[in-house]
Structure of UBA domain-containing protein:
Amino acid sequence: MSPNIITEAGVSTRLNQWWSSTPFITSGVTIICAAIYLVCLLVGYDSYAEICFLPSAVASHFQVYRFYTSVLFHGSLLHVLFNMLTFVPLGTELERIMGSVRLLFLMFLLATTNAIFHLIVAFLVDYNPLYHVSYLVDECSIGFSGVIFSMIVIETSLSGVQYRSVFGLFNVPAKWYAWILLILFQFLASNVSLLGHLSGILSGFAYTYGLFNYLLPGPSFYSSIEGLSMLSVCVRRPGFILCTGGTTYGQLPTHSNMSTPPSALINANFLRNISSWMPSRRTSTVQTSTNQEQEDPRFPGRGRTLASTGTEPTAREANANLHARHTAANTVRADATVTADQTDTFDEELKKLVGMGFERTQAEVALAAADGDPNVAIEILMSQQD
C-alpha cells in the first residue's frame, strides 16, 4: 500500500496543496488584499479617512470610488488575515458553482449594493423624525467583511442545508446563520462596523430574493468575456473555471431567468420570501428541445464557512475535483455538441455510484476521469480504497 502523501507531508506541502486547489479569482482577490495591506504597512500609509467608506463624504462630494477602495483596504494584520481566511473557502465554493467571471461580477455587484444600502440606512437613521443618530454618516468603514457577509447568505441559500454550526459550538437554523454571526461579532470583536456587516446581509438576501435579476447579464455576456484574446492567458490557467462549462448545482439568478414582470415578483415571490425570513430560491424550470421542463438539482453544500459543520473534501480531493471540473469545462467549450441527454446520463450514473456507498466527490471525479463509464469509474474508486 502506497503511503498517504497528503497526511505525511509537511506543513508547507499541505499549504501548497490547499492553495493550489483555490480557484483563480478567489486566489487573486486574496493576493490583492494582502498585497495592498503589506504595501500600506511598508510605506507607513494610514490615512484611511481618504479611502474608507464615509457616507457623509460620498453624499457631499460624490466620492463613489470609496465604494470599492473601502473593500480592498484593511486596518490591521488580524483584520486582513481573518477576512481572507473566511473568504477563501466561501469564494472557492461559489467560484466552482458560478465560474470565475460570474463570481468577479457578483463581487463587484455586492460591493456596489452594499455601499448603497449602507448609505441609505445611515441617512435614514440620521434624519428620522423620532431620534437622530448622526454618528453613522461620519463612521469610516473599511474591509472585505461586508462582501463576505453577502456571500455567506448566498452560499447558505444555495447549499439548501437546514442548520449551520457557529464556530463549532452550537447549531442554528440556516435562515438565522448570518444574523447570529452579525450579533456575535458585535460582542466578540471591537471596532466592528455594524452597519457595514448589516448592509452585506441585506445585499445577500436581495440577491437570493431575485431583486438583482435585471442587473445580472445572461450567459452570453460571460462567454464573450471568456473569449477575449487579452484574457486568454487567464482562461488557460488551471484554476480558471468557465461559467458555461461546469456542472451548476442550484439555480443562479440571471436576467434570462426573469420570466415574470416586476410587479408579479414583488407581489408574489418577494412577499413570500419576506414572510419566511429565508432566501429559499425555488429551482426554476428550463426548456428542453422537446418543450419539456425539468428542475435543476440543488447544490449539496459541501463548503464550510466560519467553522460550519459538514464533510469537507481533503486537499487532494479538492485539487482533483477542481482539475476534473476545469478539464470538463474546456472539453465542453471546445466541443459544442454536448447535449442535455449526456448530462442527464452523467447525473444518473453519479447517483448510482453514490447509492453504492461511494463518497459523492470521489465518485464525481472518478466518473469524469472515466468519461462517464460507470464500470471504469468503479475500478478507479476501488483502486483508491486499496
